[in-house]
Amino acid sequence: xxDEVAHLTRRFNExxxxxxxxxxxxxxxxxxxxxxxxxxxxxxxxxxxxxxxVWANASIERLTGYSVNxxxxxxxxxxxxxxxxxxxxxxxxxxxxxxxxxxxxxYEFRAVRRDGxxxxxxxxWQPIYDRHGRHLGLRASLRDNSELKEDRLALRKAxxxxxxxxxxxxxxxxxxxxxxxxxxxxxxxxxxGVLFVDxxxxxxxxxxxFAELWGLPAASTLV
Length: 223
Prior knowledge:
Blueprint: H1 2-38, E1 43-47, E2 53-56, H2 59-64, H3 68-73, H4 84-100, E3 104-112, E4 118-129, E5 135-144, H5 146-167, H6 173-189, E6 195-197, E7 203-206, H7 208-214
Antiparallel strand pairs: 1-2, 1-5, 3-4, 4-5, 6-7
């Protein structure tokens, strides 16, 4: 009887120790997960297969002004971030992504922070699964893409203006040269690389950002 009680006590203690070690391991893994997720610059979201937000990282507050709990309470998040005219498009695309289990990159929409400030949001998402292959929904990453978007819009506007000037002919040569100089200055200030080639695939211009990216000489002209 005494030996049996001692044996059971020993087995109970071993089981308790094993359970404690397992709990400690889970706690460490959870702490590591939050250390990575919460200090990621992008806002990270998990939408379940029905499209309901079930998790968001701490960066979402820096990006949107809404706390994690507020995001979880807002219906159909991240749709409340979008301008009203954008929401039906985003809702349809998210529903399709959940149904078809597809991925996308650089999905842009106009968004509104909690304080009313507007920004260009860029979103990427992909389907996620558990270790048994069961579909868990979508993981979505959200970032503020305003600076890059504004640069792209400015570039598009400048190129269109230059083409219009070239179509006016030689009589407006002086004005076209002024526009060309303005375009050069604009392109040189861009934060992303720009490369122009002619119809013969010869390089006619690259801006300093492109030169720095590829280790090229910085001097360039738009011809």
